[in-house]
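[09:14] KT: can someone run the structure on this one? pasting the chain below
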Amino acid sequence: MCYNFFYYIISFIAIVLIGILIGLVIHLHLKLKKFLAGSDVKNLDGTISEMKKSINDLQIFKKELESYLVSVEARIRRSVQSVSTVRFNPFKGTGSGGNQSFATAFMNEEGDGVVVSSLYSREHVSVFSKPIKAHKAEYELSDEEQNALDAAEKILKAGK
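[09:31] RB: done, structure tokens below
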């Protein structure tokens, strides 16, 4: 009788352990199913191979993107990044012109660009253009042109 009771206890413990192991197997199966989700692969080796391929594709994309960004950065440095306009009356006191004349400076990040100025009078309009290299004018600038250039440089410095 004592042996029967002992067998019942061992059987009960074995059934509980089997239930726990079945639960663990189901839990691991669900985790593996999540891990393999989204792919047609049915085993771990296939999933790892697919992940390696994805990583290689991402590395290729990263290299292409980096080279593209380097070229974009070079183009941006050469593009106009600062514009400043000064309006003025070149004929103060004579009554002609008004504040219709202007000087506008266009500059890129490296300090290259152009100053365009216009002198307006009732009879005609004159337009001038003076190149700028490394923040320096190649030709003598009027006070208004220099003011426009200084304001453009100030905008560039504020943007950095």
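[09:33] KT: thanks! Strands lie at 80-88, 101-108, 113-120, 125-133, 136-137.
[09:34] RB: yep, looked fine to me
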